[in-house]
């Protein structure tokens, strides 16, 4: 408000000054028009006698030229003042443009830093979510049968969107806003961490997905074979089994199908198969014997696939928990602090 009032006051003074100059120039111009008449009169007053003015042309030229020249000088000076004012306005406009460009450039730098901060936050949260899914899978044997929920489906573009930020712009933002002992190393570390995170996710997820599908397929085969096994036991009936065979079958059914949670698990099936392996090897009926050992083979295959899954999970989980998350956490703190101070 004070600046606007000062500008208005200054403009008012300039306008008054210009009006005075114009009045003076106008008066001189009007006087110049009547000068020839005045200066060619024989005698106006006692003190103004132009009887010896010489030839009329010389008189007019001699009397008007200084007056017109003086008016021209005044008007030229006025034009000069106008030009100075125009130059001043142009300079002010140029300075405002430079200031606005500086503000826009700084805003653009801050926006790039904000985008990187968001991507770092996203990477940290995504890793934490995946680690939670890994932990749930690892601690619960029932979930090792089927792998639903362990794979978090995220578009590939979301994992690598930090690469769309202009690197030169981001580096300038680091230099402008971030307080750090080694800006270059921090900048390099930013991309190193995010590259490792995104590439590792894209690398391990297809492997886990493929192994999960194999594990699920084997599980389906085991389920069908168990149904087939039960059908065969019903087919032969209790009357066709010896007392010892009946005890073996009842014990196996109890361990597999009558477990407390009413649902067999890979762990319970594996234990039951190991427990009754020698007993079923002596059962007379080949169909039942073959089905039993087919179950054992399928269970062994599932265990092998699950061991690969667990190994892959543990490798990534250990690296993320012990290194990547800690480093990204430090980077996030630096970015948040710098954006807060900016």
Summarize the structure.
The chain has 342 residues and is mainly alpha-helical. 82% of the residues lie in helices and 0% in strands.
Query: Which ranges are low-confidence, i.e. pLDDT below 50, for 5 or more consecutive residues?
Result: none
Number of helices: 8
Shape: rod-shaped
How many E-type strands? 0
Summed up, the domain count is 2
Strand content: under 5%
User: What is the CA-atom radius of gyration, in angstroms?
Assistant: 48 Å
Order of helices and strands: HHHHHHHH
N- to C-terminal distance: 27 Å
Protein model, in words:
This protein has 2 domains: 112 residues, no CATH class; 219 residues. It has 8 helices and no strands. 82% of the residues lie in helices and 0% in strands. By secondary structure, it is mainly alpha-helical.
SSE layout and pairing:
Layout: H1 2-39, H2 56-139, H3 156-160, H4 167-177, H5 183-236, H6 243-257, H7 266-281, H8 286-341
Structural descriptors:
2 domains, 8 helices, 342 residues, mainly alpha
